[in-house]
Amino acid sequence: MAEAVSDKIKNYKTAPFDARFPNTNQTRNCFQNYLDFHRCNKALSAKGQEVSPCEWYQKVYKSLCPMSWVSKWDEQIENGSFPGKI
Amino acid sequence: PLPVRKQQIYTDLQQLLLLHSKLKKENLIPLFIFISGGATMSVLALTRAALKNPDVSWDHKNNPEPWNKMEPNQQYKLLAVNMDYSKLKKDRPDF
Questions:
Q1: What is the distance in angstroms between the Cα of B49 and the nearest Cα belonging to chain A?
Q2: Which of A4, A75, A79, B2 is within CB 3.0–4.6 Å of B6 for a Cys-Cys bond?
Q3: How much is the pLDDT for B46?
């Protein structure tokens, strides 16, 4: 599974179609992948595993999200004022 | 007996109905069919959106992110053009 994931990360072109967000408005897609990246990091490091599979979510949100949103959320996470549940 | 003007209008109407004898209520039936069909479809669409839409969560405590419960090849749209849902697979890493 880890090899398949690292292969997918190496061959990454762009964010794939996500059946959860089939319409034009991809805002939630962006936010969900941002959340999933941080949740994945938190979960895998709590289990003591490598967090390299989480890179997939980072690549997807970097493809989808406006940079201003990403930098704003990163600041909020550093401040501790991030509104999402991680 | 009505005043003269109203009597005139009344007989005009009778003549109108005599000449155009098809002015009956039954002719409105197709209108009622389309109106009731449209009303039914709109109510059904609203209830489908309220119950099945993955963006809708009525119970925030037990169902906080309902869109995450969708399968990778599950289709919510009624009509999806150029999207073969049967070929989709899960492509996100687990954690």
A1: 14
A2: B2
A3: 97
- For residue A50, what is the nearest residue in chain B, using CA coordinates? B95
Chain-chain contact of B67 with A28 (C-beta, under 8 angstroms): yes
Is the distance from CB of A69 to CB of A29 less than 8 angstroms? no
Option in B65, B68, B76 nearest A22 (CB): B76
Q: Number of folded domains in chain B? A: 1
Average pLDDT over residues A11-27: 92
Beta-carbon separation of B68 and A20 below 8 A? yes
Complex-level ipTM: 0.79
Q: Which residues, other chains included, contact A18 with Cβ-Cβ below 8 Å and sequence gap of 6+?
A: A29
Residues 6+ apart with CB under 8 A from A21: A28, A29, A32, B67
Between B82 and A27, the higher pLDDT residue = A27
CB contact under 8 A, A20 and B54: yes
| Parent domain of B50 | 4-87
The nearest CA of chain B is from the CA of A79 a distance in Å of 25
As a whole number, mean pLDDT of residues B1-30 equals 79
Q: Which pTM was predicted?
A: 0.78
Q: d(Cα A2, Cα B50) in Å, to the nearest integer?
A: 39
Q: Residue B94 falls within a domain, yes or no?
A: no
Among chain A residues, the shortest Cα distance to B70 is held by: A20
* Domain boundaries, given as residue ranges, for chain A: 26-86
What is the CATH superfamily name and number for domain A26-86?
Cytochrome c oxidase, subunit VIb (1.10.10.140)
